[in-house]
Design goal:
single chain, mainly alpha, 2 domains, two-stranded antiparallel sheet, 19 helices, 6 strands, globular
Length: 485
């Protein structure tokens, strides 16, 4: 989208901010705290004209600082506020820009897509509406704790407003072309965290029931590696410059290595799923037959396995003591793959979620319900656990009922159908980015079918959905836009 001078967000902010700041500044002169608040508001308003670029920086931050943005809140008035909550700031920017477009009799970018895209936005709105209904049901009917209700609504529904941010801000070619740097920053950031933990022995601690297990990476950090792996595979398959293909090959090998030694079984799964989905997307674009797809996949897997083995040898050589401990931990996690599902914590969590759903099939338990379950431990004892189901779809099902799950699932199903049908129309210069982001979206959704939904990961997933639709909106013949705002 090319913004004209009459629809630039800078003008909207200028006309709205000046009278608001002038009115509040007169009152701030009599109160020091109010003066500080006005200063903060002025900074926020001043940053709105650059919200498009800041949205890219925010997206990159959700890929790099997943742990900090998900588990380091600021507590105000008894409620926790996370860095990922800044998505609300960008959503407010979307509202301001959309209102300004309406006042100037222009169509807001959020609603400028095709008919199918508007239908997708309608289903999205229905899902949010049902989330609000479930919030009220949990707070006023089943009388769940208000803090739990708001926490579940934020985790499942509120962060999905990130879907509207790239669309509503009207990102163009100039902005979308920089997404590759966010992808690389996320993957390399996870690699750096892994190297730091391996070198210092200060491993990430994952807690299950009452036991802590050391991991090289946080569970969500593996998703950043999966996105970078998909991007590397796409570059290797489409780029004609040999140097870039060799560099992409190295990035792919490093990504697979750290996924395998991450300490997570999902890391192993993502090491397979990420390149597989990337190749599938490229096969759709090329119109490959199944035989050609399998052949390409086998060659790619062989190359990546060899390079990953060489990278693992290099790690052991450079960091022998710490690396040995990590490799022992990795071997134990691989052996856990042979554990029967009935011996896994998720078996008992899933079972209890189904029981709760059967008891409340229409409206669910309401948001805020803290599920309790008994899980069998390795020593033969049953311990009481509580918390998430480790499956976002089961969370939605037992807390919001049948209709809630149908709306939630329909939104994601319609999105996948719409984007895959538009994938061939994505401009060639954005194909590798689109393949990486769609693969990252699918891997994130699969990941949250087995792990708790984390804040930064949820925001990143919905931002990726918005970025993908922006890529699909741009016609291949459009002249690159030079606007920097």
């Amino acid at each position: 989208m090319t913004a004209t001078s009459s629809t630039r967000p800078q003008l909207a902010v200028l006309y709205l901010a000046i009278p608001a700041c002038a009115a509040m500044l007169s009152a701030a002169l009599f109160n020091e705290m109010l003066l500080i608040m006005v200063g903060c508001l002025a900074l926020v308003l001043a940053a709105l004209p650059f919200s498009r670029w800041l949205a890219l920086v925010f997206f990159a931050s959700t890929l790099v600082f997943r742990v900090a943005m998900s588990f380091s809140p600021i507590v105000l008035a008894g409620y926790r506020f996370y860095a990922a909550d800044l998505v609300a700031y960008f959503f407010c920017g979307v509202i301001v820009y959309s209102l300004w477009c309406v006042l100037n009799r222009n169509e807001p970018p959020l609603f400028s897509g095709k008919k199918e895209e508007r239908l997708l936005l309608f289903v999205f709105a229905l899902s949010i509406f049902w989330g609000i209904v479930a919030l009220g049901y949990g707070m006023f009917i089943t009388h769940q704790p208000a803090r739990n209700v708001l926490g579940d609504f934020r985790r499942i529904y509120f962060y999905s407003i990130g879907f509207c941010v790239p669309l509503g801000l009207g990102l163009n070619r100039t902005h979308l072309s920089k997404l590759k740097y966010a992808i690389l920053a996320g993957g390399l950031g996870s690699v750096m965290f892994g190297i730091y933990r391996m070198a210092t022995g200060n491993l990430y601690r994952a807690t299950t029931l009452y036991t802590q297990y050391p991991r090289l990476l946080a569970d969500d950090e593996t998703l950043s590696l999966a996105i970078m792996l998909a991007y590397a595979v796409a570059v290797m398959s489409t780029d004609t410059v040999i140097v870039r293909r060799i560099m992409a090959l190295g990035l792919a090998a490093v990504s697979i290595t750290f996924l395998v030694i991450s300490g997570w079984r999902m890391g192993l799964a993502l090491a397979v799923l990420s390149p597989s989905f990337a190749q599938l997307c490229l096969a759709i674009v090329r119109g490959d037959r199944i035989g050609g797809l399998i052949k390409r996949g086998m060659v790619l897997v062989l190359i990546l396995v060899v390079l990953a083995a060489l990278a693992a040898v290099a790690i052991v050589t450079l960091l022998p003591d710490s690396a040995t401990h990590v490799l022992v931990m990795t071997k134990q996690r691989h052996q856990d793959l042979a554990t029967p599902f009935v011996g896994d914590l998720r078996f008992y969590v899933y079972k209890q979620a189904i029981i709760e759903y059967i008891s409340h099939p229409i409206m669910g338990t309401g948001l805020g319900h803290e599920m309790e379950y008994f899980a069998l431990t390795s020593n033969g004892l049953f311990l009481l656990g509580h918390g998430s189901t480790h499956n976002v779809f089961l969370d939605v099902l037992y807390q919001t009922g049948t209709l809630g799950l149908l709306m939630f699932a329909a939104f994601h199903a319609f999105f996948c159908r719409y984007f895959l049908r538009r994938l061939r129309q994505v401009p060639p210069e954005f194909l590798t980015i689109a393949v990486a982001l769609f693969t990252g979206y699918v891997c994130t959704l699969i990941h949250y079918c087995f792990e708790p939904t984390n804040i930064a990961g949820s925001v990143a997933m919905y931002l990726m959905m918005g970025f993908l639709l922006c890529c699909a909106r741009i016609p291949a013949s459009e002249t690159p836009c030079r606007e920097d705002a």
